[in-house]
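Side project, low priority. Logging it here so it doesn't get lost.
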Amino acid sequence: MQKVLTKQVLVVGLGLIGASFAKALKSNGICERVLGSTRSDQSLKKAIENQVIDWGSNNLQEAAAQLKEGDVILLATPTLAVPERLAELKDVLMRGVIITDAASVKGDLATKAVQIFGKMPAHLILGHPIAGSEKSGIDAADETLFKNHRVILTPTAETNRDSLKKVAQLWESVGAIVSEMGVEEHDRILAATSHLPHVLAFSLVDALAKRSEQRDIFTYAAGGFRDFTRIAGSDPQMWHDIVLANREAILAALDDFDKSLIQLRSAIDTGNSHRLLQIFSEAKTARDKFSAQLAEREKNSKPHKRN
């Protein structure tokens, strides 16, 4: 069992991310009490019955009243709902409770936080766990969800370094690899590496589903189709929120992709064998390099055996 890092953590939103984080904290004894708050009576009941949390309430103010200075709140609600929860917790943040979040977009949230508080609060640590599943809800809770996955924290000049350290330690205690980067850099990188692929997968499945021969298309689809489109099974509401919150960066990523797609289409249309082979070869080289980096990271993350 690991060292207790803080007395209490309140997880707001008990879906896949929130429930998995709470479950990992509780099962590893990382804090004395794990509290939960959600508007769903059913999710709250399951969280208590399955020992995902120690105590919970549908009333956020009632849950937050349990906290003291140095305790931590994780906002794991849908992206567009996070600012509303922040506004409800304004007094709590002002008395030294640390608040972090798990939203996939940081720029929109940072802007709204300044609007709510007048400036970026020192104890608000914006973060994003790069982990998930096409499954959703508390039934999908997995205490190993964050193991060997990155969590990006985006501190600002106003950020309290002790609060930042505590949030980082909490994520590390559930197996995550913590990195820091700027807010704009985060949104630009995630637009390209996560948001764009999801948008493309949703678009492809939607387009094929509307074709007259859709039954044959899906009947005879091979493994590559399944692998690429798996993420189109993700929560539509969650991705609706992400796309709207990060629309500028996503549009820029889409524009770049459009340029590449036009070049590929031109090569196919003109039968340009050299250009086709060049595009495919460069893509394969880049993918192989990425796979090697991933394998090395996983190798280094495994504990060494002692004789």
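Brief comment: Strands lie at 6-12, 31-37, 55-57, 72-75, 98-101, 124-125, 127-129, 150-153, 177-180.
Revisit when time allows.
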